[in-house]
Amino acid sequence: MKLSDPVVRRLLLVPVLFVAAMAPAVAHHGTAASYDQNTLVTVAGVVTEFRWRNPHSSLHLDVTGSDGKVTQYAIELASPGLMARQGNGWTRKTFKAGDKVTFKVHPSKTGAAVGECLFNCEVTINGVKLTNAAAGAGATRQAPADGRPIP
Q: How far is CA 64 from CA 32, 33, 91, 114, in A?
């Protein structure tokens, strides 16, 4: 067997291509390294942008601190396909600029103004709790306790 033999070259090429193809998949999944999975914090702010895209959607907020200072905060969410299919029924229209939201997120381990909520997100939009409906049925909004109409 010589390296110049076409059969040997093809046999060597298969594992090299396999490893090269797997590298992006292995490199992609790292949220546990970036976010504190043992902690949940509540973030409240005003939506500035909702990015509905793969591999992860993101929600961008202006969060006003107790000192009045506004901080831009980003929340990493699941992919559009997962959010639409796995019971929460979210769509690209679930959040819009100007919505007042409250989210429970896993905070960044570095203290940066980012958090992560990939599954079982607890969310309030304009005072209305967004709940997970039965899988595939879509998200629903619970009416506020004071009888106000659902926004």
A: 27, 27, 26, 15
